[in-house]
Amino acid sequence: xxxxxxxxxxxxxxxxxxxxxxxxxxxxxxxxxxxxxxxxxxxxxxxxxxxxxxxxxxxxxxxxxxxxxxxxxxxxxxxxxxxxxxxxxxxxxxxxxxxxxxxxxxxxxxxxxxxxxxxxxxxxxxxxxxxxx
Length: 133
Hints:
Blueprint: H1 2-6, H2 15-26, E1 33-39, E2 45-53, H3 63-72, E3 77-83, H4 93-106, E4 112-120, E5 123-126
Helix pairs in contact: 3-4
């Protein structure tokens, strides 16, 4: 139901819906998931895909695969989302570095990374909101 409220809608104008959807989908998962929201040039949701599922405290992310999938879907922007099963949404150094690598890989191809959201049981962290990207 929450997915329906953001599919085809301008995602950035309904940020609360995006957060609610991601929190519902991921906050209580026992393993880390790395999810990507693919957006068109009007910031409407094209697709929401779980790209990787990892362990209780790590999931591998491959920037090449993130960019490849965005190109396949003709996405012009993406929002990266992953959960921390520990419940603490504080970004790690690895989270920040991986995000910067994806930004650097996607930018020359015309794909912008709007944000990287980390979902915890009791809240979320936005790397953009924290001015880490």
